[in-house]
Amino acid sequence: MNRKLKDKIFRFIIYISVCVVVFVFLFITIYVVYKGFSSINLDFFIRLPKPVGEKGGGMVNAIVGSFMIVCLAALFSVPLSILTGIYLSEYKNEKFANVVRSALEILSGVPSIIIGIFVYGLVVVPMKRFSLLAGSIALSIIMLPLIAKTTEEMLNMIPLSIKEAGLALGLKKWKVVFYILLNTAKPGVLTGILLSLARVFGETAPLLFTSFGNRFWHRSILEPAAALPLQIFVYAIAPYDDWNRQAWAGAFVLIVLVCILIFLSRRLILKYK
Amino acid sequence: MRKKDYSDKVFEVILKLSAAISLSIVILLVLVLIKHSFLSIKTFKLRFFINTVWDPVFEKFGALPFIYGTLLTSFLALVISVPISISIALFLSEFAERKLKEFLSVVITLLAAIPSVIYGLWGIFVLAPIMRNYVGPILQKFFGFLPFFQGNIYGLDYLSASVVLSIMITPTISSISKELFDAVPKNLKEAALALGATKYEMIKISVLKTTKVGIIAAILLGLGRAIGETMAVTMIIGNIPNISLSLFSSGATLASVIANEFAEATEDLYLSSLYYIGLVLFLVTLILNIISKFLIKHLSKTK
């Protein structure tokens, strides 16, 4: 075949692929926004779900539930992950650090449904109940490797001279780490936290058998609780048109929240560049 | 004399303790999976993998239908996604201008960020009807003589699940490949162009050949994601334990059967068998990840 022709065909394939991906992306997002926007109403944000089969109602418990689960997960995960990240960066040549690093790498590749059944066995079975708490623990385990890794990488990027300057001033090591290093790495670490929040906010599989879902308010964190992605799942596969409508509304809210988190993280990166 | 200051010692202990807790979570994960699947492992041993019957009522549990479903959908997803992802990566690294590049990177980032349950929702209400009414009949018209395209078309089937999976793994494969292509030394590319190679020939000689190993690693990581993907597949595949050649029949995957049946598994052996499936899923994704990480490390060493 003609060489020039081959080159043309090759370019054509590449451009087609780009068009396909952009088209699919626009198709999905525009459809979700269009469907969601036409399905959403005030009731969606302020009312509890109606009994099965009845029209109307909203997902207020799921929206609040999602925020509570994610906040609690961040509360568990952020301190532990940052400290682990600091350890991995400060003691990077220790054998134990390599073991921990590999373990976290494994954890970040584990499918989220596996985290779900793990926390079911670890928390739900001994407590004999599904709970918001169990859901938070599941999400915090998903966040752990993500935040620890970013913290480690951000700290590793700081020039050694900055650290040495601090130590030369006679500062204690922990002061150098917290006041100088962590402060320098803050935008990067915050970006990592925001991205991990964006990721777990949409997670459904790890909540199926931990926080389980609830058609009413959860009265404490030891009760099963509704979450937005869970509710979308249940309403999407249900045979009621009104539930399907609300699933689209939920998807719209979820996608907006995820986009806000990603947008914030991008702003943060640009601001400090 | 000043009092001795132990704060750095305490600091070190706290750091090590945190790292130890993180490690223990991973160890616990493995232990819990093994403990809960023990009953099923003891009962079925390795026959679990070749047994084709999954019947909770009669307590017969074989994982082959789910292994088949997982392999089939992931493989199809790769077939669709790999050429597209690599094209995208090449476009980003070799063709695009800055503005277009930024736009496309945002698209890829957002595609990766869309929650799985939304892909599932879109799959049920948008993709499935398209597959049922348009794509399926067309495929059947031209390729209906093949066993893969026979039978009734429901839309909630292997093919739809594979299509959604292919969309979901495209960001993974393309972003890793893009980084590989960006890392190819400029002089390699320029040398090829200077010898009169067309862009296609340059990419074939200088870019694809030097990054071969890395591309395989990227594909394996994408495969790992496809195998572990749960919600979207659960919503689209139809959830019937089934081994059928036809891509138009409903099926189930390792991940989807857990999502779908775990809550109703009240018998010990039933629950244990689902944990056994979870253990298999864990090990498969673990091995894929280890191989791809190894390949990437190997690649950076040889450079």
Q: What's the tally of helices of chain B? A: 11
Q: Which shape of chain B, going by the Cα principal axes?
A: flat
Strand content of chain B: under 5%
Widest β-sheet, arrangement of strands of chain B: 1-2
Report the CATH C-level class of chain B. Answer: Mainly Alpha
Structure in a nutshell:
The complex is a heterodimer of chains A (273) and B (303). Chain A has 273 residues and is an all-alpha fold. In chain A, 77% of the residues lie in helices and 0% in strands.
Could you characterize the architecture of this molecule?
The complex is a heterodimer of chains A (273) and B (303). Chain A is mostly helical. Chain A is built from ten helices and no strands. Chain A has helices at residues 3-39, 42-46, 60-90, 95-109, 112-127, 132-157, 160-168, 173-201, 228-236, 241-272. Chain B is 74% helix and 1% strand. Chain B has a single domain (20-302), classed as MetI-like fold, CATH 1.10.3720. Chain B has 303 residues and is an all-alpha fold. In chain B, α2 (64-95) packs across α10. The longest helix of chain B is centred in the first third of the chain and has 38 residues, at 7-44. In chain B, β1 (54-55) and β2 form a beta hairpin. Chains A and B meet through α1, α3, α4, α5 and α6 of A and α1, α2, α3, α4 and α7 of B.
How would you summarize the topology of this molecule?
The complex is a heterodimer of chains A (273) and B (303).
Chain A: H1 3-39, H2 42-46, H3 60-90, H4 95-109, H5 112-127, H6 132-157, H7 160-168, H8 173-201, H9 228-236, H10 241-272
Helix pairs in contact in A: 1-10, 3-6, 3-8, 3-9, 4-6, 5-6, 6-8, 7-8, 8-10, 9-10
Chain B: H1 7-44, E1 54-55, E2 60-61, H2 64-95, H3 98-113, H4 116-143, H5 158-182, H6 186-194, H7 199-208, H8 212-228, H9 231-236, H10 254-261, H11 268-302
Antiparallel strand pairs in B: 1-2
Helix pairs in contact in B: 1-11, 2-5, 2-8, 2-10, 3-5, 4-5, 5-8, 6-7, 8-11, 10-11
